[in-house]
Amino acid sequence: MGFLNPFMLFGITAVSVPIIIHLLNRRKFQKVVWAAMRFLKVSVEQNQRRMKVEDIILLLLRCLLLILLALALARPAMKQAASEIFGQTQVTAVVVLDNSLSMGMSDGTQTRFEKAKKTAEQAMETMPAGSSVAILLASDIVNGVVPEPTFDFNLARKAIKEAPLTDRGSDLGPAVNKAIETLKGRFAIRKEIYVLTDGQTTGWKQFGEIENTLKKVKGDIRAHFVFINEHEVHNLGIDELRLDSGMSPAKHPLRFAVRVTNHGREPARDVRVSLHVDSDPPSNEYNLELLGAGESKTIPLFAKLGGEGFHSVTARLPEDRLVADGKRSVAVRAIKEVRVLLVDGEPGAEPRDSEVFYLRHALTPVAGGEQAGYFIKPVVASLSDLSAARLDDYDAVVLANVAELSETTVVAFEQYLRRGGGLVVFPGGKVNPVFYNDSLVKKHQLLPALLGEIRGQADQDEKYLSFQDKNFDHPVVAIWNDEGSGTLSSARIFRAIDLLPAPYTRPPAPKPGDNPADVKLNDAGEPRVVLRYSDGRPAVMERTWGLGRVVLFSTTADTAWNDLPVRPAFVPVMHRVLGSIIQRQDEGLNVRVGERFLRRTSSELLGKDARVTKPRQTDAVPELRRVEMLAGAPALHFEQTDLSGLYEFTVADPLTTFKFAAQASALESSLDELSAEQKKLLSASAHVVDWTPGLSLKDVVLRERSGLEFWLPIVLAALAVAALETFLAQWFSRSK
Amino acid sequence: MDKAHIDQLLDPQTISNAEALGMQARSMVEGYMAGEHKSPYRGFAIEFAQHREYSHGDDTRHLDWKVQARTDRYFIKQYEQETNYVANILLDGSESMKYGSGAITKLQYGKMIAACLAYVILHQRDAVALGLFDTTMRDYSPRSDSKATIHKLMARLAAFEPTDQTNIATVLHDMAMQIRRKGIVIVISDFFDDEQKVLEGIQHLRFGGNEVIVFHIMDPYELEFPFTGLVEFEGLEQIPKILTRPAEVQKSYLREVEAFRNRLRDGCEKNQCHYLLVNTAQPLHEVLAGYLGFRLRTTTR
User: Fold this and answer.
1) Closest CA to A594 of A259, A141, A206
2) Which residues of B touch A21 (CB under 8 A)?
3) For residue range A209-242, what is the model confidence (pLDDT) as tens digits?
4) B190 touches chain A (CB under 8 A)
């Protein structure tokens, strides 16, 4: 027993009012001089006792009336009352609809999400008139479509009807917490939460916390969990699709890696995996003969991108009951050519002595006559030419054994990197480590590492270092995890500079509610090791800088300190390094579902509107997004990436198209569900219902629901007392 | 002064009505001079009553010779003696008579009744004695049949102011002892006293052969008790104050008053007295004309 408006209990003090009125009335009377006192005296003596009793009865009734009114206003409530003779008590409820990707699992006619919507409407039907309901959509975020309980059930029904299924991951913890928060401060006897989910274990990462939270509020809030998960044993999904080639030149065959996982309980046979460019027919297909239960396989598939610009590449599986994870798209920007400026710090007398001789050849690994048509266009320049060069004309700049740079050049590099340029730095004998450390690391934070001690001797070939031969973490060198791709460890490095990672402070993560325009982007990214020596020390490091990337080698670009340039691995290493620089500009093209898409644009688009076309919504009215200044540069951004697939921005004038793709979490493909033990644990603090066809949630909830608010019977009692008081007052005051 | 008293106490319409009706003695009265009323004494006046056998010493003038001639026996003719009467008007002058809900108090009304009756009685040459009493006889005017007496009576009535409680029974007993000749005793009072003792007093008067007329004067508020709300009643005769809601005890009060009146009326009827409840809201001329008219119709001569 408790009170929902306990402060109204102070109203009980009003009980003194009739007593005071009674006492005051006794002092207010008419005086009459009277002769026939003997008869009056007899009458009064006969009636005095009765009148006193009647007065006391009326006074008590009036006091009782005030007490009852104060009690009714304080809204006393008792839980576990079986009787509903005074009608059902209003419910204040929060309906949590799981709209994560896995809710798209269909039984052939209806998806889990459609069933959840119907069940949510059934839950609302159980609520008596005067109830209020809030609607939350739960995926890896909580979307309050009706964030506060509303009495407008039509609005709530409309919100449920129009609730979209997303391709997001699932995490029910925040949604349950939000629902509890929403209900906590409310004055209501019946507070209920309806969670309609498929019970996928990925959504219950915080199972223990959810259970504890529900236990804490068990007395106040009743939670109903409806698990909509018919047993499913088959599900194939594409977990990953990535461009395996270092770069994405147009009209060149590109290798894509497609990882297919059998999330089902039984092996899958003859699985056809196809790769599509844009909306073209499959450019490549692969037949997986056998994929065991729980097994993953990565398949190389090839495609050619038609022309320069943005393309979508989609890998597809035959449709199963969960359609969304059977295809995965990436956005790829096809490039026509890659222009690289090779700054030679030590040209030497002969071309072969040039610091960039090997580099130039490695970047154009074709016969002399074909070099002109090759997509990589290296241009060699001296240090003196550098100041005159327009950096923006090049996709990447390589500094090979450059002693120092002028401050103007360094600032120009900053701007260049910020706009998406790439910088590759090779040390050498002429390099001034003090300048590099002071200016490029400490002052401008361009390089990912400080240059340390120089180790080894270049004029001998007995003592050398070699690169690691396994456990490659960085994507640039990840292909060498595959032994078929050759080895890096055959190269000998006789002399190298120790790379000491530059100090770095990670910026605080932006909060979900922050305005994207206010988020300050940090230019210098975290220093990462690309490649290590076999003794574990960094051999190559990189960091992102603005939209660009800086790669720092610890040894020379020519054979002065090592024999890497004459090793077969040099070409793929340099191509992949260059690829990482080019892809850096396009890194933001592929985001996870729910992540923000952000792309810098040219300044001529500033202030113009881009039309956004979302996946699966080609017929919907397109949204418009304006190109606006973001952290000092014009940019397009888009946050509503709830669906996986291709998003397209089109600016009409000048006609410009950007594409980006969102990929769903592979975890959503999992068929793992909450175990019976877990559900049993949960049922200790909540009402757990397993959905079955024909389930009537109304019956189940009405049976289970208990709790009664007593204001109505008290008001009725107060009315009865008021009526009795009126009747008795008349009856008592009649002439006797 | 006298004129003012007369104007105040004698209502012309009442007097006019009452004069015409007159105040006749209902029973035989013992007057002290010949008048209009029957005397218990057989005399030798005009009205023949009966024959009586002559006995020695009778006046031979009254021998009925015609009878003696026919029967040869001596009979004396007897006639009814007609005489005047003495009306003793007793007006209660206790404090309770001071009450009046309207313009007129019970005492004032009583005074008017007394004045009018006195005037009518004197006017028909009967004698009037007036007594004003509370616990004792406070003011007594001996009998007089002189019309001029009326002025004196008026002045006395007008000058009287009540000061004490009532004790009617004692006064009635005293009167019964004092009255030597049978006459009419008119008691005007609210009778807020022990009615049993009052009735004993009336009985005593009746035992003396007097005709007793009871004018029971009550205020309309005393008869209806129409008060509402919370009222504090302050007694006129030493009963402590009573605070009550009169509407709630009205019926009970009226029952008490009714019972009292019934006891009084029954007692009067038992003693063959006229009991007349007088509501001071009624016009006096109606009250007196009604009673005197009734009296005229029912009087035996």
Assistant:
1) A141
2) none
3) 888 888 888 878 888 999 988 777 888 999 999 8
4) yes
Give CA angle at B285 (B289, B206), nearest 5°. 55
Least CB-CB distance to A43: which of B97, B230, B253?
B253
* Cross-strand partners of A524: A545
Mention every residue, 6+ apart, whose C-beta is less than 8 A from residue A339.
A377, A378, A379, A393, A394, A395, A396
Given pLDDT bands bounded at 50, 70 and 90, which one contains residue A708? low
Q: What is the CATH superfamily name and number for domain B2-30+85-296? A: von Willebrand factor, type A domain (3.40.50.410)
Whether A409 and A535 map to the same domain: the answer is yes
DSSP letters for A159-170: HHHHPPP-----
* Residues of A in Cβ contact (< 8 Å) with B252: 42-43, 46-47, 736
Is A86 or B128 the better-scoring residue by pLDDT? Answer: B128
pLDDT band per the 50, 70, 90 thresholds, residue B59: confident
Examine the domain organization and report whether A223 and A188 are in the same domain: yes
Probe site for chain A from B256, B263, B279, B280 (most A CB atoms < 10 A)? B256
Q: B214 CA to chain A: closest CA distance, Å?
A: 18
| pTM of this structure | 0.58
For chain B, the domains span: 2-30+85-296, 34-83
CB contact under 8 A, A35 and B239: no
Instruction: Judge if A396 and A493 occupy the same domain.
Output: yes
A426 and A355 share one domain:
yes
Strand, helix or coil at B117? helix
Copy the structure tokens of residue B90: 């007793």
- Select the residue from B94, B196, B252 to test the A interface by mutation, using most A Cβ atoms within 10 A: B252
Residues on chain B touching A732 (C-beta within 8 angstroms): 248
- Write the residue in A29, A732, A736 that is nearest to B243 by C-beta: A29
| CATH classification at residue A458 | 3.40.50.880
pLDDT tens column, A35-57 = 888 888 888 888 888 888 988 89
**Of the residues A304, A335, A366, the one at which a domain ends:** A335
- pLDDT at residue B28 in the model: 53
A629: CATH: 2.60.40
B235 touches chain A (CB under 8 A): yes
Asked if A422 contacts A549 with a C-beta cutoff of 8 angstroms, the reply is yes
- In whole angstroms, give the CA distance from residue A168 to residue A141: 8
Which residue among A301, A335, A369 closes a domain?
A335
Q: Which of A477-481, A693-697, B193-197 has the lowest mean pLDDT?
A: A693-697
State the residue range of the domain holding A74. 2-82+712-733
Provide ipTM, 2 decimals: 0.80
As a whole number of angstroms, the distance between CA A380 and CA A395 comes to: 14
- Whether A370 and A277 share a structural domain: no
Which residue does chain A place closest to B96, by CA atoms? A35
What would the pLDDT profile of A130-173 be if each residue is shown by its tens digit? 889 999 999 888 989 999 999 999 999 999 999 988 899 888 89
Contact A37/B at CB under 8 A: yes
**pLDDT, position B1:** 43
Closest residue in chain A to residue B253, using alpha carbons only? A43
Q: By percentage, how much of chain A surpasses pLDDT 90?
A: 29
Q: Which chain B residues touch A33 with a CB distance below 8 Å?
A: 99, 233-234, 236
How many domains does chain A fold into? Answer: 5
Q: Does B251 touch chain A (CB under 8 A)?
A: yes
Residue A735 contacts B where some CB pair is shorter than 8 Å: yes
The pLDDT value recorded for residue A191 is 87
- Please check whether residues A472 and A490 belong to one and the same domain: yes
- Transcribe A327-356 into DSSP letters: EEEEEEEEBS-EEEEEEES---SSGGGSTT
The pLDDT of residue B89 is 92
Q: Summarize pLDDT for A142-154 with one digit per residue, the tens.
A: 989 999 999 999 9
Same domain, A622 and A570: no
Element (H, E) at B138: strand B137-144
Contact A32 B96 (CB under 8 A): no
